[in-house]
Amino acid sequence: MVVPIAFSIALSLCSPSAAEVIASKSYSYFDIRGKTADELDRELSRRGPTASGSSARHPGATKIRFGGEATYIQNNGRCRVGNVKVTVHTQIILPRWSSRKGASKELSMIWDALSSDIKRHEERHAEIARDQARAMERAIRALPQQRSCEAMQELVSNESARGIEEHDRQQARFDRVEAVNFQKRMLRLLNNRINGRAGAK
Fold it and tell me: What UniProt keywords apply to this chain's record, in alphabetical order (predicted)?
């Protein structure tokens, strides 16, 4: 979920320039139950969160909300960006296996590998959003002066829209790469856990 940045306009004659990125993150969980791999898979498909604009369920999700504000400095017939603040809040939604007690060791090992990969995947989505917020702040701060603050504000709005589009492209690219490598990644995780257990004996 992505909300475009809304930049307010405030005129100043001599305020110093400043920039800031404020990133916050929260977690929420949905419970699933099951005693077999098939049951857990069905639960994820039935209870998992939906992505924005789609009814398909996913094993995890990251909701992303951008915001921000900017002030503008007018001096000698020119206007430039003064203060810039870009905010990004990410909410990571993860599955929680509520009926794990009594499950087999093999199923627990599979779940641990899967849930670890889901969390890593969603954390990377949040990281991409934070990185893009920093890139947007730098790009807005570097915009050239304009003849009026109305023109400056329009330039900032266009740059923020471009930044959101680039963010969406990066997120989609990451998902494509992850989908291709999922099976190999899960096999590697399971092998690492099997070898770790063997080494501990």
Answer: Hydrolase, Protease, Signal
Q: Where are the alpha helices (DSSP H) in the chain?
A: 37-47, 105-141, 149-200
Per-residue pLDDT reduced to its tens digit, 67-92: 888 888 888 889 999 888 899 999 99
pLDDT band at 1 (very low <50, low <70, confident <90, very high): very low
92 CB neighbour count, 10 Å cutoff = 21
Measured CA to CA, the distance from residue 14 to residue 130 in angstroms comes to 30
- Residue 76 has φ and ψ, to the nearest 5°, of 55, 40
The model carries a pTM of: 0.82
Nearest CA-CA partner of 116 in 39, 37, 189, 42: 189
What burial letters (b/e) apply to 9-41, b meaning 16+ CB within 10 Å?
A: eeeeeeeeeebebebeeeeeebebebeeeeebe
Residue 39 and residue 95 in contact, taking contact as beta carbons nearer than 8 Å: no
Query: Do the beta carbons of residue 126 and residue 92 sit within 8 Å?
Result: yes
d(CA 35, CA 39): 7
